[in-house]
Amino acid sequence: MKQIDFDKLEQDIVAGNKDAASDMLVSFFDSDLTPQERGEIMLNFAMIYARVKTKINQAYLESLEATLSDLKLVDQLEREGNEKVDLDDIRKRIQGS
Amino acid sequence: MAETQKPGPEIIEEPVQGENIDAALNAGGDINKFILRYNEKHPGGELSAADSENEKYKQLVFLQQHVKQTGKEVKSFLISEIKADGITLDSQAFQGEDGDVIEDFLIAEAVKDLEAAPIRLQEIHDNLANYYKTKEQIGVIEGEIKTKTKDLESYQGEVDAVSKISGFKRGIGRMFASPEEKATMRQARTNGIKSGFLNGRMNTEAIDSATIGREKSIANKEEAREMLAEEAKQMRIDLLRDLGTDTGIIARAMEIATKRMRDSIANADNLTLSQAEQEFDQFESLEEAGENSEINYLPQGSEREQMREQLDNAVKEKLVVEMREAVEQFPLGNKQLDRMEKLLVKYTSRERVGNERDPDSARDFVLNNLKLIYDKMAADPKGNNSIKKLLVERACWKMDPPVEIKNLVVDAKDSSRLESYDQKQMAAAAKSKATPPVAPGSAPKPVSLGSSDPNPNDGGEHTL
């Protein structure tokens, strides 16, 4: 069977070298492959890609969650600040009356 | 399911008994046809009592259904996810019917090992399920962020861009930071937000001014509220910028990674081979990330080249050290020889990746180490050295460009075997790489590999 370097393919995907990954795959798919070889390469590529992309997405998800948490913190602090302003305003009115 | 290329297998008339099924499978049977024919004989899909006892048949039906489903899942993933992500599989690369090819492959694998097939199918399913689950979670959180920042219309696009355009790269960038580094960055961000509200301008100026009152109290209150809102807005914008541009978390992660790399260079003597390799890989990844970004994560010009060379040399030095250690571990077992082979290949490919200017260096490395290995073998009274040599020499044709073994080392007794082996591998390598096996003008110099071999299996002198 014609061998494809799946390690190299995975490295290219991890590094974001999409063009290199595409080129490698296209060169293989355009060559003479038996249906079985073609199926194997398709499947292995899909599995590598799903695994790598999930890792990347999980890292991105962590950042999204951190950002959402920070946004909630900003909301909370803004609310507390407004309450403080209101409290000070009431105190001032009482003192002024 | 696509028709197989081979002539169809003989269909067994009464596939009830396990032995018949085994016979069909052993003969390279197509279980789809097999089951189809069987179902024709048993309309309604109901198994008879006798059939229901036939576990192998049930296993085949189960596999047939799941293989079909898995093939569809993979095909859908290839079409909808990978293409959408920008990896283009042009021309003949991916056609609709390739889903059938995947099914055919899965079937063939399942037939080879019925026990392992369900596990394999489950792994594929789990892998894809994880992918979709994470993607869905991203959609949910992005939705919440959008809701929370809907008033910041001008920055809304950045949230979209994160996932649609640059999420891939940014996700990669975030992978560079260790959990500890990410926790530190996260804490720094939280501290920044807290200090902005609690100890910053709002407390000391806005709220105090509202308390003290310069004009009417209500005016000061509104002013304080406005300032609070402005402060909060600015913080939200900063958060979105961090998320949506390369100037945020990723840039800090890159800075940390670059610093760690510099520390590694300064401390190269204490690195292990894998640590040195990891740093070099990271250097290349940062370089790649920098090419697609406005931010340069690495120093420019000669300083960057120097950094590359230092990291590359660190890896090669570790490879040389490990090779020497491997050679010293006589008598050589298959494990040591496999390790040597990997080291030889790693070294020669590194010469190609890091330094195309000196292809002879890789060959010298191989020759010198082969000589060491042969000398050791000559002194090794045990074992079949012919086989050992073959194992080591596999490294030669794995080199890029590959080295013809017959020009490198010819063993009198093994020459025909080596030559045939060599020609086969060289042809395969040349076809796949389309590069000349040996660069013009750089043919290896004849090197005598020394003494006669006391092992009769080993065929005597090694000469070129």
What would you note in describing this structure?
The complex is a heterodimer of chains A (about 100) and B (about 475). Chain A has about 100 residues and is mainly alpha-helical. Chain A has one domain (about 5-95). In chain A, about 85% of the residues lie in helices and about 0% in strands. Chain B has about 475 residues and is an all-alpha fold. Chain B is built from 19 helices and two strands. A two-stranded antiparallel sheet of chain B has the order 1-2. In chain B, helix 4 (about 55-80) runs parallel beside helix 6 (about 115-150) and helix 7 packs parallel to helix 11. Chain B is flat.
What topology does this entry show?
The complex is a heterodimer of chains A (97) and B (464).
Chain A lengths: L5 H9 L3 H12 L5 H62 L1
Chain B lengths: L17 H9 L4 H11 L7 H4 L2 H28 L15 H15 L4 H32 L4 H12 L2 H10 L2 H21 L1 H12 L4 H28 L4 H18 L6 H19 L9 H28 L5 H21 L4 H20 L6 H14 L6 H4 L1 E2 L3 H19 L28 E2 L1
Number of strands of chain A: 0
Return the domain count of chain B. Answer: 3
Strand content of chain B: under 5%
**Integer average pLDDT of chain A:** 78
Which structural class best describes the helix and strand composition of chain A? mainly alpha
Number of distinct helices of chain A: 3
Number of strands of chain B: 2
Give me the number of helical elements of chain B. 19
Helix content of chain A: over 70%
Note poorly predicted spans of chain A: none
| Sheet with the most strands, sense and barrel status of chain A | none
Structural class of chain B: mainly alpha
Mean pLDDT of chain B: 61
Main β-sheet description of chain B: 2 strands, antiparallel
- Our measurement of the CA-to-CA distance between the termini of chain A, rounded to an integer number of angstroms, reads 92 Å
